Amino acid sequence: MAEHEYSGYSEQDVQREVTELEQKSATAARIFDLRRIIGGLFVLYGIIVTITGITDSQAAIDKAQGVNINLWTGIGMLLLGIFFLVWMKLRPVAPPPVEELLEEQKRTE
Predict the structure, then answer these.
(1) Residues 39, 84 contacting (CB under 8 angstroms)
(2) pTM score, whole prediction
(3) How far is residue 28 CA from its own chain's centroid?
(4) Closest among 86, 80, 92, 68 to 44, alpha carbons compared
(5) Cα distance between residue 59 and residue 36, in whole Å
(6) Within the chain, which residues score under 70 in pLDDT?
(7) What pLDDT, in 10s, does the model give residues 35-56?
(8) Concatenated DSSP letters for 47-64?
């Protein structure tokens, strides 16, 4: 078989396909970044637990030997969630190289 067979696709078709694959890959990498999921959940639960800590009764605080554990845990969860979201923003996931995407697409066809 010849190394450079004619496939019926123009250079523009191939370039457009590569561009589409790059865009899909980058979008999928951002959507499925675990830091977004973990950070979002920690922020959400941190807000809930912090509000619970703010509204705790003295009896609940006395149960924890005078420490408002819900408030401190909620603040810790908020900080951890914010850390994950900032980390995701500062160091985004790089999409896989285009060559890998093209090889994977050829295998599936």
Answers:
(1) yes
(2) 0.61
(3) 10
(4) 80
(5) 36
(6) 1-9, 18, 21-31, 94-102, 104-106, 109
(7) 889 999 999 999 999 999 999 9
(8) HHHHHHHHT--HHHHHHT
